[in-house]
Design goal:
alpha+beta, three-stranded mixed beta sheet, 8 strands, Arc Repressor Mutant, subunit A, single chain, SH3 type barrels
């Protein structure tokens, strides 16, 4: 599952798949109705890969939350995001027991669950990628052979400019919000 190419755009419902990238914009396709539109740098665009959920001790990537829901529901749909707020909180407490109750609002839970359902309907939830390294070991590849396949020449480290990691995708385009990781419930009132 490549969440780097799946985006949420503030002010627009649902999720969008990155189609192409231009100089001042990106072309995205809605996962709801498959219509394409340009999204400009003035839009607040967040790749799902950059979104994390607050817990009591750290931030958990959205990918991990989706994987937990997928496993809990055996690959089927989760609870309806329009359910009673108390039921949503109870459900999310099962999915992510130590989520930060004061920072993660019901609106955030609704958004995550609706995104999960949308990704599931579009067959974009595939967690087999994460299991491939374990499969190569099971086939009898030695650790040395696996390292040769993965090994790449090292580049000299670049200077860190403005708090952005030198190899981050923020330097490649305007898809990410200037290298910042978006976290749920960063505003009061839960957008």
């Amino acid at each position: 599952m490549d969440l780097k190419k799946i985006m949420a755009i503030a002010g627009y419902p649902g999720l969008f798949k990155l189609v192409s990238q231009g100089k001042n914009n990106v072309i995205v396709e809605s996962l709801i109705d498959n219509k394409r539109m340009p999204a400009f740098s003035s839009h607040k665009i967040s790749a799902l890969d950059d979104i994390a959920v607050f817990t009591e001790d750290k931030e958990v990537p959205l990918r991990d939350v989706f994987k937990t829901i997928f496993e809990k529901e055996s690959g089927k749909e989760c609870i309806d995001p329009k359910s009673d707020p108390e039921k949503l909180k109870e459900y999310f407490a099962v999915v992510l027991p130590n989520y930060h109750r004061e920072k993660v609002y019901v609106s955030d839970i609704k958004k995550m669950l609706s995104w999960y359902i949308l990704l599931l309907k579009n067959n974009l939830l595939d967690f087999t990628e994460e299991e491939k390294p374990a499969e190569s070991e099971a086939k009898g590849d030695s650790t040395e052979d696996a390292e040769k396949k993965v090994a790449k020449p090292k580049k000299s480290p670049a200077k860190n400019q403005g708090g952005i990691k030198p190899n981050s995708s923020a330097m490649k385009g305007n898809v990410k919000a200037k290298g910042k990781t978006t976290t749920f419930a960063s505003k009061k009132g839960g957008e």
